[in-house]
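Appendix B. One record, verbatim.
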Amino acid sequence: MIIPLEQLPSETLNAIIENFVLREGTEYGSEDVSLSDKIAQVHQQLKQGSARLVYSELHETVNIVPAEQFIEGSEEE
């Protein structure tokens, strides 16, 4: 299920994004990117719709996935 961003308090959304960024260990190339910049990038992707905040009832988890990866109505993430 997609979680609408506007239904979450900003502190909760920021905590989810920070947890995601720290967990993912995403490769940003040869230059260092600060944690705050990574969080801002993910937040922007969520606002633009290129990433989605989803809740898996099966796993009882919240995750951030690329919009094209998530098929609404499925349990896949």
